[in-house]
């Protein structure tokens, strides 16, 4: 059906781990760690009474404070979480649970993170769904 001209990676690339420079690897790791710290900070501070805009804004602020550019920040609260995979924030209250997504840019590299927060207990069905994510 498809006529792809598949070319496997040269063995020298597969065997040589030095083809990605150490400074680039360190920068990539640093962007990921900073973005992760920002998201953890924001989700620990978040409250169910916050709006999706407030969570997105707090996330962007935490990224800027760490020298990262918030290229994309997505948020879905309790009502919209099952409806949208890529939810742009709205003025709705978060409710019992929320999803926060970052695409954070630093040193020309991007770190992409998705995390969920629950302000109570998950139902058995919700816990099972989260286990599969």
UniProtKB/TrEMBL annotation:
Instruction: State the InterPro entries in the record.
Output: Creatinase/aminopeptidase-like, Pept_M24
Organism superkingdom: Bacteria
Domain Peptidase M24 span(s) in chain numbering: 29-131
Q: What is this protein called?
A: Peptidase M24
Native organism is Nostoc cycadae WK-1
Q: What is the lineage of its organism?
A: Bacteria, Bacillati, Cyanobacteriota, Cyanophyceae, Nostocales
